[in-house]
Amino acid sequence: SQKIEQNSEALNIQEGKTATLTCNYTNYSPAYLQWYRQDPGRGPVFLLLIRENEKEKRKERLKVTFDTTLKQSLFHITASQPADSATYLCALAPGYSTLTFGKGTMLLVSP
Amino acid sequence: SAVISQKPSRDICQRGTSLTIQCQVDSQVTMMFWYRQQPGQSLTLIATANQGSEATYESGFVIDKFPISRPNLTFSTLTVSNMSPEDSSIYLCSVEFGGRDADTQYFGPGTRLTVL
């Protein structure tokens, strides 16, 4: 069956360090993969989209990699700040159909 | 992006009753979706709200339980019918604009529903 796996344990890091979150998937051939941020009590906010023919994409302090051989995406936040503390969701779209979301990983950045 | 609002933001309802959730966007969108997010779980797509025709439901969700309307390109409603405590969840609408912004979804703030 199709699965999207994100680390269910919260990631705790010190301010200024790089946070790396992982999204693994099985039995998908996604056309693209997205990362969203969700704060408590709020809807997800889109961060980055990376397509199957792209290896890496950057936006300010964010970087996403996409390895379709390993079936894995890595999401990096450099120079992390306490304001980056949130739950980060990855989402896949096989072809041009609807999105399927992972459960998300909570990131806690301490000062 | 756009401003997406949902009403109500939260509600506490009795078993057996129904609740209609509204989603309003401040500009026209091509696609509108309804999701459910149960505590500690991922977002689960309920259905795609189609303008002028019946919604497209995902496996496990049916029209009798979750009737959806989309009368125009900026508004949709989701009704949770004959509620039970298992329907307690956050319900979220999302939109896609198409064009250069295609494939990116923008979410409303969610409706937190508690069924007693």
Annotate the secondary structure layout.
The complex is a heterodimer of chains A (about 110) and B (about 120).
Chain A: E1 3-6, E2 11-14, E3 19-26, E4 30-38, E5 45-51, E6 56-59, E7 62-67, E8 72-77, E9 86-94, E10 100-101, E11 105-110
Parallel strand pairs in A: 2-11
Antiparallel strand pairs in A: 1-3, 3-8, 4-5, 4-9, 6-7, 7-8, 9-10, 9-11
Chain B: E1 4-7, E2 10-13, E3 19-25, E4 31-37, E5 43-49, E6 56-57, E7 68-72, E8 75-80, E9 89-96, E10 106-107, E11 111-115
Parallel strand pairs in B: 2-11
Antiparallel strand pairs in B: 1-3, 3-8, 4-5, 4-9, 5-6, 7-8, 9-10, 9-11
Question: Which regions of chain A are unreliable across 5 or more consecutive residues at pLDDT < 50?
Answer: none
Order of helices and strands of chain A: EEEEEEEEEEE
Q: Report the portion of residues of chain A in β strands.
A: over 45%
User: pLDDT below 50 for ≥5 consecutive residues: which ranges of chain B?
Assistant: none
Q: Biggest interface pair, residues each?
A: A-B, 20 and 21 residues
Content of β-strand of chain B? over 45%
Q: What helical percentage do the residues of chain A reach?
A: under 10%
What's the alpha carbon Rg of chain B, rounded to whole Å?
13 Å
Q: How many H/I helices of chain B?
A: 0
**Total strand count of chain B, please?**
11
The helix content of chain B, as a percent range, equals under 10%
User: What profile does the largest beta sheet of chain A have?
Assistant: 6 strands, mixed
Give the averaged pLDDT of chain B, no decimals.
Answer: 92
Structural class, judged by helices and strands of chain A? mainly beta
Assembly category: heterodimer
Distance between the termini of chain B: 36 Å
Number of helices of chain A: 0
What's the order of the H and E elements of chain B?
EEEEEEEEEEE
Radius of gyration of chain A: 13 Å
